[in-house]
């Protein structure tokens, strides 16, 4: 109920993770349809970049203003920090405080003084600025670092490399918010270089009991994770499966006599001929520039079922041909041996 500096930076990290989820799944999902020339109805989804920018902008972001207040000479406290936020973010639609509400003549008893509220992606969160300056200005004094580095213990030296006299810097140590922002940026860079797969965990109940589902608890988690708004709507509006024409043709070409065992034309033409012979509904398929799109998993399951049946038939055919070849070869050897034996016997007689 009482959120301070720790909850603020944790929720900032959650916003960044949600942003990468939006960009790398939902936005990419829709952009792929545009690249492939697929006709479909775009789904509107909320891009939380405006919230991330509110927190991390290098000039007007909350973290930047907090660092500025920590490094400013003179009397500095949370009141001056909150006043500065109210001045610069008075018109921001995802920020509000008691002062900004009063300016808009809004009465809200749930927002106390010395607090500000951010409209996060998952909902509104109120933060108490008490302790923000002290916790952000988490400075490790230089003489303490030098003393720890001078210890003979190798582990202590490795933990305080800034205490090395040869690496003395006149710069002030970075604030806690700056270090956390840098760590989040490094994490985002690492994630953007990967091909992520998401697993969303839903807690079914608060009692840790098996086979017990609390609908209100599950619904709240689904709503805060954005599953209904984004994933389900985008997947329903789009296509559940997509694959390049070449691999798709290689996997399923045995289902059509015209494409099996060899197709001499282009990959797209081969896929069109293949699927035309399977008589799937037209609305289930879409042909992009480089990929085939299948709308429902049921159609894909049907394809896999037919392929398994066809593979079994082909395996039986191969076994039949091999057994026939082996029997014919054995018979020819026996016949050749019988003729040879008969010839020698008649010659001897």
From TrEMBL:
GO biological process: actin filament organization; actin filament-based movement; endocytosis; sensory perception of sound
GO CC annotations, alphabetized: brush border; cytoplasm; microvillus; myosin complex; plasma membrane
Residue span, Myosin motor domain: 1-308
CDD domains in the record: IQCD
Keywords on record: Actin-binding, ATP-binding, Calmodulin-binding, Motor protein, Myosin, Nucleotide-binding, Repeat
Chain intervals for the UniProt region annotation (Actin-binding): 184-206
GO molecular function: actin filament binding; ATP binding; calmodulin binding; microfilament motor activity
InterPro entries: IQ_motif_EF-hand-BS (IPR000048), Kinesin_motor_dom_sf (IPR036961), Myosin_head_motor_dom-like (IPR001609), P-loop_NTPase (IPR027417)
Homology family: Belongs to the TRAFAC class myosin-kinesin ATPase superfamily. Myosin family.
Protein name: Unconventional myosin-Ia
Species whose genome carries this gene: Prunella fulvescens
Taxonomic lineage: Eukaryota, Metazoa, Chordata, Craniata, Vertebrata
Chain's gene name: Myo1a
């Amino acid at each position: 109920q009482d959120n301070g500096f720790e909850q603020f930076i944790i929720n900032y990290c959650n916003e960044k993770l949600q942003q990468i989820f939006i960009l790398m799944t939902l936005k990419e999902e829709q952009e792929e349809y545009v690249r492939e020339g697929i006709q479909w109805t775009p789904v509107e989804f909320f891009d939380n970049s405006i919230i991330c920018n509110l927190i991390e902008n290098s000039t007007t972001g909350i973290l930047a203003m907090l660092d500025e207040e920590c490094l400013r000479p003179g009397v500095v406290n949370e009141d001056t920090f909150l006043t500065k936020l109210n001045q610069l973010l008075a018109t921001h639609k995802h920020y509000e405080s008691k002062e900004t509400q009063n300016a808009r003549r809004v009465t809200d008893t749930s927002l106390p003084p010395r607090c500000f509220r951010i409209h996060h992606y998952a909902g509104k969160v109120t933060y108490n600025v008490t302790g923000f300056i002290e916790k952000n200005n988490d400075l490790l004094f230089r003489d303490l670092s030098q003393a720890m580095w001078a210890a003979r213990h190798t582990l202590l030296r490795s933990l305080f490399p800034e205490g090395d006299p040869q690496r003395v810097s006149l710069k002030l140590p970075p604030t806690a918010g700056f270090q956390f922002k840098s760590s989040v940026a490094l994490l985002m860079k690492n994630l953007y270089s990967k091909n992520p797969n998401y697993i969303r965990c839903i807690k079914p109940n608060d009692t840790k009991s098996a086979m017990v589902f609390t609908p209100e608890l599950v619904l709240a988690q689904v709503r805060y994770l954005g599953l209904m708004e984004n994933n389900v709507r985008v997947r329903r509006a789009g296509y559940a499966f997509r694959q390049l024409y070449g691999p798709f043709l290689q996997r399923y070409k045995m289902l059509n006599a015209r494409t099996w065992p060899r197709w001499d034309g282009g990959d797209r033409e081969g896929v069109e001929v293949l699927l035309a012979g399977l008589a799937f509904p037209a609305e289930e398929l879409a042909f992009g520039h480089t990929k085939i799109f299948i709308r429902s998993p049921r159609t894909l399951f049907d394809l896999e079922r037919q392929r398994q049946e066809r593979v079994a038939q082909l395996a039986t055919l191969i076994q039949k041909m091999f057994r026939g070849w082996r029997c014919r070869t054995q018979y020819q050897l026996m016949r050749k041996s019988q003729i040879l034996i008969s010839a020698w016997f008649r010659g001897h007689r």
